[in-house]
Amino acid sequence: MPRARRAGEPRRPARPARASRAALARLLDDVRACRRCEAELPLGPRPVLRATPTSRVLVVGQAPGTRVHETGVPWNDPSGDRLREWLGLDRDTFYDERRIAIIPMGLCYPGRYERGGDLPPRPECAELWFDALRAQLPRVELTLLIGSYAQRHYLGDDVRKTLTETVAAWRDYLPDFVPTPHPSWRTTRWLKEHPFFGDEVLPELRRRVTDLIGDDPAPGARPV
Ligand code: SF4
Questions:
Q1: Ligand 1 atom at minimal distance to the Cα of residue 128
Q2: Where would I find the H helices in the chain?
Q3: Ligand 1 contact via 83 beta carbon (within 6 Å)
Q4: What CATH number is attached to the domain comprising 164?
């Protein structure tokens, strides 16, 4: 099992030197068998993630909702529909894990607050798994940071005071990262109030994603 991140270590992962299909497959088996915070999960552990060593784009969201937990398919909900629209991708392309890896900040459904709204992602996932997973994704050149949890984790001290300020500073994080709000219905008003996102961020995001995933995956690559 990989060690936890130590305090003060850089958030941005170094480009991995070596990775292999077998190593990633073993790691994904370990992740999918994880029970670390079972006692805290109202629906039990069900890590939802996907990746192959040939993935070019990494999508980092918050944590599965109930529908994603039930189906085991990430972004299999109206937020996923909007995200695919933002990226300019159909479902088949979005779910082609030879091109796109999906690893949320919390891998299992975390439950809900009594007053409504999902609980934050479990912090154990990042501590246990993220460095090891990222080390097995050598071809990722763009990481989409969806929401403040992903932005705080991956941008560290470079994150701005608010999500809006971080997204507005999107050019500062290129070429490795693009920060976005969450594509849920709650964001509809935010999008209207911040037209730069649709006018400037999304066209550049679509261009980069198309450039990266337009390449054929490595010969013989198959989903893990
Ligand atoms: S939430 Fe993360 S740490 Fe907890 S059981 Fe699921 S995969 Fe393991």
A1: 3
A2: 21-32, 66-71, 78-87, 91-94, 123-125, 131-135, 148-155, 163-168, 188-193, 196, 202-213
A3: no
A4: 3.40.470.10
